């Protein structure tokens, strides 16, 4: 299979990464070479194989319902690119 | 629109359309801390004060699941008579939004914790079962605030990561009344179980509404539209009504419905397309590699089953059988867990029939008037049962009881004290009553004459006079008896 | 005297501090001085020198010799979040990010008396095999000028080989500890998945990532692992197993140990030197009473394609949080979506973007079953191969990499050939197993080559012991000349 320019643009949209035509072309080329190498998996018959979702040899540990986290608003907002002491700030969203 | 035989149909040019409704209810799990972090779920705190590093998705932060939320989901599943899945998987639902810090929501996609179940509705023309498709656990997002800063959108992550149960119904609902009954029943079940407080004002219960229409008699479902995030029953009904009519109009004009996500504008009372979200609709679900599959064993599920309280359907059955209530009365009394508790407390120590009448009559009128919940009732169940006992043992009449009730509502005073202080005790001493009656007979010779010559209706006049002279305290039953003897 | 200090190995330094022959300050200053002279290697992204010296002084005032790293200076890969020390993950998007929290692994090091002297360069978000994807520039391999140090823990391998730190830590998603260790003539261990907590480590691919030690020798490696590996309730994939005193238990007796040699690792076009190196390892094992058993890992060839679906898929989702809203770089945008797209386009480098795109594609509607689900199934087959093999053997011996270090820029324009570097290391991550790379010889250019010992899950002690025996018999010498200091 080949990944065309339209697909590259669609993926970049889904990934929220803007990309110009030149870059998209180069990326398309890279993706095609990577995917032709990935296609190798089709040689394998996996009809009766269960997917492996987690490699950790343990069961999901459960936490008690306790409040341990305090108000750390200052820490949370400290690295925020837009300075506001109460909120995160983003460009106006119109719904 | 017409309502023939309780049917909800939209009629255009002699075509009758049936409306098919499915609800995805998002119910906030009652828990102290969030689904995957240890910050508080408390409502109404200062912005971003209940946000942990996990909730704000800082680099390297990992989710650790809250055991209580799992239990709550299992409980709710049992309450919905649903299959509990012993193995469920948490997936990531990927999309970008300002109030979604991780860039994905942890949810359950292919393997939810709860499978198929059902909810029974009591409709005027009988019971109706609504199928439950599934229930799964997921994280809530934060809140985007658009109206504080004119240039920017502000984000508060207090809600981010709070546990939600998404309860998906089958497309079994057919009318606005059924939607109303379904939401109320769901809410009631969860409040009985203590798994969700059902507080719609605080957003603890919201729904995405799926609506489609089809010509009556058609078997195939029409294309549906999903109306996102509607937060009251009234708005759900308004949104459905608008949307169903919109779809019928399109079909009648020869058009076809696009499957899409729509938004309900409560100010304009209309739904409109959320085109801004259309290109982000590929959620790329995959199992969250930070979490392992959730495995529940039979013992765990059985333990929870054992501790499930009596639910509305069973309670209703018991009320009818044990207390001989009518289905209508039972329905009202079990509709809310707090009402049923109140009723059981009152009726434990007093007459059931009187308790039913007083709660559904006087007390409900009072709560309505004050616009408060039964938990905030100014009259405690203990004092109401005392009042009922005073009526039952003849200490006061029903009429006096009403005036005692009027006094009780302003401070939950013990009715026995009120009756004593105000001297409202019924006069039941036959001698005293005889004196009162004799006085009335002497003072009204003409009426006595008229009564004796056949004017039976005047009997009421004599009773009234006696009651008046006793300031309403005379025992009406005894007055009747003595009067009859005297006059005949 | 100074240069002597940096020549000492970790266990020796600990010993000398405990015997009060050296102070923490002396040791810390020595490594900092050497680091300062070694800027040409570009091993550091952030330096914490002043603070470290202060901490060393404090330690010396009230030394606690019961600690396992008493006042020992350590530079760490810049993928570990360190409280109040900038953490970049080698990316522009986190250029100015200063965590308010500490990763569990670095906390363990601090708790044992270690002192962080700086944050080491790495491929951006650990995506790379040569450290060339770092926003903060290439790292030089101290072995020879303009040679890559491997990746993604390239700053770490360079720093340990050049003796800028007595030990270091890296992360390994597909070989990111073992390959750079192999390229620089040092020891690197990737523990069993679930052994070291992932809490506070900038995530690349959650089901594959593991932190591990990078050291001069196997003894140092054992000590570091002992400190790093703890059960952590903050990581749901952390496993509560009995952790050994790896250093105390370390011994070179491998008599009776059954070592598997997988035939599928003899790949076409593999340099002769690597084959010879492998034979050398086999010979040593036999001479020391170990038993060599031919085994088959039939799905080996499918590991790399599987990895290049699973890792980018997880990464595409893990890196969604870098959106310019909460922390890190933000580019101005006309609206929210525009802001996202510009921030992520300008904030991420090409390789990261490439992998996000691959990952997004394999998860997207219509392709999930063909790619992601398929890869998960093949991953199961690969794990089954190892499970089968371990019915017959205690550990497996392979080369660490199919070639020695290459020149900077050599493979930059050919992603697939770059990816092939990890052919021997990737299957181990997919199966979640522990593996160690130890230096075992040189190729004809004089560049180091490594051997890899792969163990059963949670059996780090066995691979340390086997590596210890190999190390003794190989007596590898790293011919590093300090060319960058002149």
Given helix and strand content, the structural type of chain B is alpha+beta
Q: Which CATH first-tier class of chain C would you pick?
A: Alpha Beta
Oligomeric grouping of the chains:
heterotrimer
Shape of chain B: elongated
The amount of helix of chain C comes to 25-40%
Number of helices of chain B: 15
How many structural domains does the protein architecture of chain B include? 3
- Terminal Cα span of chain B: 63 Å
- Along the chain, the helix and strand elements of chain C come as HHHEHEHEHEHEEHEHEHHHHEHHEEH
Strand content of chain B: 15-25%
Q: What is the percentage of strand-forming residues of chain C?
A: 5-15%
Distance between the termini of chain C: 19 Å
Average pLDDT taken over every residue of chain B: 92
Q: Find the CATH topology of chain C.
A: Amidase signature (AS) enzymes
What order do the strands of the largest sheet of chain C run in, or round the barrel if closed?
A: 1-3-2-4-6-5-10-11-9-7-8
SSE diagram, text form:
The complex is a heterotrimer of chains A (95), B (488) and C (486).
Chain A: H1 5-14, H2 21-38, H3 73-78, E1 88-91
Chain B: E1 9-12, E2 15-28, H1 67-79, E3 87-88, E4 91-94, E5 104-107, E6 117-123, E7 126-139, E8 143-145, E9 152-156, E10 163-169, H2 176-193, E11 205-215, E12 225-230, H3 233-252, E13 261-265, E14 270-273, E15 286-287, E16 294-295, H4 298-306, H5 312-323, H6 327-334, H7 337-348, H8 352-370, H9 381-392, H10 398-408, H11 415-421, H12 430-443, H13 445-452, H14 459-469, H15 476-487
Parallel strand pairs in B: 12-13
Antiparallel strand pairs in B: 1-2, 2-10, 2-11, 3-16, 4-5, 4-15, 6-7, 7-10, 8-9, 11-12, 13-14
Chain C: H1 2-7, H2 10-18, H3 24-36, E1 44-47, H4 49-61, E2 73-77, H5 104-111, E3 115-120, H6 154-161, E4 168-172, H7 178-184, E5 187-190, E6 210-215, H8 218-228, E7 258-262, H9 272-287, E8 291-295, H10 303-318, H11 336-347, H12 350-363, H13 369-389, E9 395-399, H14 415-419, H15 426-431, E10 435-442, E11 448-455, H16 460-474
Parallel strand pairs in C: 2-3, 2-4, 7-8, 7-9
Antiparallel strand pairs in C: 1-3, 4-6, 5-6, 5-10, 9-11, 10-11
Helix pairs in contact in C: 3-4, 6-7, 8-16, 10-12, 10-13
